[in-house]
Task: inverse folding
């Protein structure tokens, strides 16, 4: 299993995981959920207690990745398979456009 910590406006918002069976799960942090002043990380992932699951990387997180020549270049420089979207997100998610960033969970 691979895990990332998701931040919104530099505040810990939840955990994104790629499970051993290849499925994905996003779970909001309980403290983030309890704070009415926090926004969902995406309109497609409204705040809720139940984890979100998907057979594919959630479209919102996939959209944080570069495309085309930039993706090929990043993959080559970082030594990550171009088709490994989760691996690329773990490696490049600290530097995104917008309020949401993603960092590998080292725990």
Result:
């Amino acid at each position: 299993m691979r895990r990332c910590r998701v931040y919104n406006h530099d505040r810990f918002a939840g955990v994104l995981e790629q499970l051993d069976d290849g499925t994905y799960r996003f779970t909001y942090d309980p403290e983030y959920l309890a704070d009415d002043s926090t926004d969902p990380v995406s309109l497609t992932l409204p705040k809720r207690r139940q984890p979100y699951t998907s057979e594919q990387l959630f479209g919102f997180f996939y959209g944080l990745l570069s495309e085309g020549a930039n993706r090929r270049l990043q993959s080559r420089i970082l030594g990550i398979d171009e088709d490994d979207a989760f691996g690329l997100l773990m490696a490049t998610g600290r530097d995104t456009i917008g309020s949401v960033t993603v960092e590998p969970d080292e725990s």
Q: What stands out?
A: Residues 2-104 form one domain. The beta strands are 2-8, 11-18, 24-28, 52-54, 100-104. Residues 30 and 44 are 19 Å apart (CA to CA).
